[in-house]
Amino acid sequence: LERGFVSNRLIRSFPGHTESVGSVVFSKDGALVLTGSIDGDVQLFRTDTSALIATFDGGEEAGAATAVFSGDEKQVIVARTGGQIAVWDVASRAIVDQKALFTAELFGKPILSADGALAAAATSQNVVEVWNIAEARRIRTITYGDNRAILSLAFSPDAQFVLLGTTGARADVWSLSGGGNAPDESYTFSDMSAKS
Hints:
With 196 residues, the chain is mostly beta strands. The chain is 3% helix and 44% strand. The chain is built from one helix and 16 strands. It has one helix at 2-7, and strands at residues 21-26, 32-37, 42-46, 52-56, 65-69, 75-80, 84-89, 94-100, 111-112, 118-122, 127-132, 137-143, 150-155, 161-166, 170-175, 188-190. A four-stranded antiparallel beta sheet has the order 1-2-3-4, with no helix packed on it. Strand 13 and strand 14 (161-166) form a beta hairpin. The radius of gyration is 18 Å and the shape is globular. It starts with a helix and ends in a 6-residue tail after the last strand.
């Protein structure tokens, strides 16, 4: 991949989905590519050959899929638009766990931490729920009482914080270890549209 990047050319494509691909991730060693689509499926490819290794089938009404590898890369964690979470074993291509975590209608699809341990999503009530997937336990609820809407979410690399992009030219970082319902003020980025 490195030579292709330096020469600024397309190296590889990974066809196979029937709808748009909205989630992509490399394995840690770069040998595998995981893709999630609004067709509901997640597909696993070899990076060097584009060979399809596995399709994790979402079923007829699964909803758009976001996927990541578990920390040891032996499992694939899939989050879907409706809030369903499925854990697939890579070797057997079988579902080993499946659950619905979120308590309200979601605004968009859930996001997953890099290790697949946590899921977060914004609800239609302008609330963010953060869940520990293995324990099926909600670890944080963040409520925005003002008129700002939550447009985007991201976990920090260590999954200790969640970053929220909102209307009103502002992004906030929230600690996942503390309580309360106010972002850490040292990590609030206001009036971003006015900055270069």
